[in-house]
Amino acid sequence: LKLMAYDYVPVSDEKELLSNLKVQLEKHNKVVFTELEFDRVLNILSKGSVFDKAVTLREKQHIVRDNGEDLYFDFINQDNWCQNLFQVTNQVTIDGKYKNRYDVTLLINGLPLVQIELKRRGIELKEAFNQTNRYQRHSYGASLALFQFIQIFVISNGVNTKYYANNKLQSFKQTFFWSDGNNKLITQLDKFAFSFLDTCHVSKMICKYIVLSQTFKILMVLRPYQYFAV
Questions:
Q1: Tens digit of pLDDT for each residue in 86-123?
Q2: Closest to 197 in 3D by CA, of 114, 82, 81
Q3: HEC letters along the chain
Q4: How far is the C-alpha of 192 from the C-alpha of 29, rounded, in Å?
Q5: Best exposed site among 59, 87, 154, 163 by fewest CB in 10 Å?
């Protein structure tokens, strides 16, 4: 990922995550938040369910500055999805019901939007799927619950790699292989990374190819054939 225009940032806990988030949001919106103003931003981020947060991510935001002026900003650039700030980190530890340490996290404008769970070769892929489910139960909702902003999960054992939307009702049957435009599966982790996790591609998937189902209040991500059809 560091070869693919992701900046590596060491983030070990929520405090460092928030510190990095402030800097990235300031860069992205070309503003500087005072501590009180950033508290107002965090107040927006901490509210709601996974579905509510997915809506918040995509909406234009507003706070009142310390001097009484209105400030409008966004968490992600949906129209020019390549013009976001991309970082990668690993081994972030969050204390919830249990202490969990996540494998690899992709941050867009400082928010954790893609989570990658890796297993050794030979280990069943479903184990990685079960692991992310445990994280959802044990720690994603802890404290400010920023990890509930995850839009896409990626699971891999090196040989097989799949992706799926952040949706608690998801079953393993709703995890998908990625493929190219000729419907050739891309299963190897490194090839998947260069194709699917390319900064412009993964942010386009988040901005344009995740459906927010108002009926069921869940996120759904398009499969490759749907993506190429669109």
A1: 999 998 988 877 788 899 999 999 999 999 999 999 99
A2: 114
A3: CHHHCCEECCCCCHHHHHHHHHHHHHHHHCCCCCHHHHHHHHHHHCCCCHHHHHHHHHCCEEEECCCCCEEEECCCCCCCCCCCCEEEEEEEEEECCCEEEEEEEEEECCEEEEEEEECCCCCCHHHHHHHHHHHHHHCCCCCCCHHHHCCEEEEECCCCEEEEECCCCCCHHHCECEECCCCCEECCHHHHHHHHCCHHHHHHHHHHCEEEECCCCEEEECCHHHHHHC
A4: 31
A5: 59
Q: What is the mean pLDDT of residues 189-200?
A: 97
- The token pair at 6 is 């992701």
